[in-house]
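Example 423.
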Amino acid sequence: MVDVLLGLQWGDEGKGKIVDYFAPKYDIIARFQGGPNAGHTLYVNGVKVVLHQIPSGIFHEHTQNIIGSGVVLDAVTLSKEFDKVAQMGIDARKNLCISERTHLILPTHRALDKASELSKGVEKIGSTLKGIGPAYMDKTGRNGLRVGDILDKNFTTQYIRLRMKHQRLLDSFGFQEDISAWEEEFFDAIELLRQFKIVNGEYHINEQLRQGKKILAEGAQGSMLDVDFGTFPFVTSSNTISAGVCTGLGVAPQKIREVIGVTKAYCTRVGSGPFPTELHDETGEKLRVVGNEFGATTGRPRRCGWIDLVALHYACMINGVTQVVMTKADVLDEFPELKACEAYSIHGKQQATVPYQMMKTAIEPVYRSFSGWQTDITGVQEYAALPDGMKAYIDHINGFLGAPVTYISNGPGRDQIIPSSKD
Ligand code: GDP
Ligand code: IMO
Ligand code: MG
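Predicted structure in complex with magnesium ion:
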């Protein structure tokens, strides 16, 4: 069977830490979408590691990892990450395999991402500039190169043909930067990629399932960044929701069991786009400082605000969430008052649904207030020992979402996680 773990907000919910925590329960951790736009932070023996391309099960000896067909792969990022985990004693060639259908991010995709963002000016998406959008465009446009292609002796010719196409587009943007250094590192990284286990992803995974292996599909980004159901056009270019597991790994829907949604106890967003509960005041600044809210991939300060239960309820619905993990609960420890958005007021009318066009709609969040617990919870290990104020906050969220909060994360460390009594 396949369980899914994914983000319910706009990314950076703490998925990496939670996958790393759950990994020992699974035989395989599989990324099904996204690419190096992801930045998943784990603490391994107290050492901070940020993974962009490699699944978060890599540090567990008995866990295999898969980069699935729905991912877009930057060989250069993979190569840097390969070195990073090698320094920590892991040879990723042994416990990571890559689907031959996975699309490659080329140096020109990165250039096109940059050129496209520059051309949009103030209306830019705020992309991570990793080439995600252009790589997925080449996939749906039926031009892209895939991991399996690197084993073909004509790979360089295929690359040059696509590069020329990209060059014409770059010229039309007036993009003049020299990317020859990127190309050099790209071809070096392709050499390393050839040393990985390149598999027929869908047969490989289905065979593992037939043998009774347990798979955890690791989401990247968040549900509100889904290309179809997120805050379009301020989204990423893949299906980040649970449906993406089927198309990204080649597994049938009946194989999916639990859908574990991860949310912060508040809310953040990095990049442009609507964010109804964003706080532009000192409370928002306090969340950023206490929560250390700076992007794991780009270092950009994250926009911060209160938890948005309308958006979370929507995310639970489209994902079929069966349980919720709440992270960064400790960040709220010092706040005397907390708020949770329970409705959107639009032109004076309240609704509890997410409008299709959030950007052009003036949304006023309607809040419920909670008393803060003002207690340090970072050392708590049992649900019963959590402050009553926090339990009330969690109970309310349980009721609103209709899916139980089964774990509460109370710090970035591996052992800072509390199963709730509702588990
Ligand atoms: P991901 O992209 O969803 O894996 O999340 P990121 O790694 O981008 O961002 C989450 C950040 O929060 C990382 O710096 C984590 O180390 C940190 N983090 C995760 N869980 C907790 C938690 O419960 N409390 C605190 N204070 N930090 C956490
Ligand atoms: P993880 O997996 C937070 C955001 C970017 C931008 C938009 C589109 O760490 O949660 P893209 O580079 O995908 O074209 O950018 O999506 N974004 C993320 N925000 N966490 C992420 O990943 C993100 N990946 C992309 O900031 O607004
Ligand atoms: Mg992240």
